[in-house]
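Its record is quoted verbatim for completeness.
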Amino acid sequence: MNDVMPDPTTAELAALPRAFAVAADYLARYSGRTREAYTLDLRSFFTWCADRQTDPLHLGRADIERYVRWMQDQQHYAPSTVSRRLSCVCGYYKYAVIDPVLTASPAQHVLRPWASPTCSSKPCSCAHGNSARSPTPWSCCCPCSACV
């Protein structure tokens, strides 16, 4: 395809030409490491969609929330990684509405996981855990002074 998006070598990915075109247009706004990171983020999202035989441009809010749960529960990504990848996907859909490829963004009302910009991604060591903020055991998500 081009150096911005992955070359669609599988039948699943080749079936998504419009989604790739929107992604290439969205990524053209960025440069350097941001562009590289967002390319990887969208590649991961598109692969997740292809594995489920779903076109990214035909997803709903619940599908994107399932993607977030997949990143958290099955891939065990750090909260900061989940947050960045979701931010990229939300930007992709916002761009698709502005372009206008879609009439509304399915990501608009997705609940975003809480992640501290200084997240250490280490298990919480306090007695009460992190039940006040997140279902995952990350110290950065625990509001107590022992973990922060």
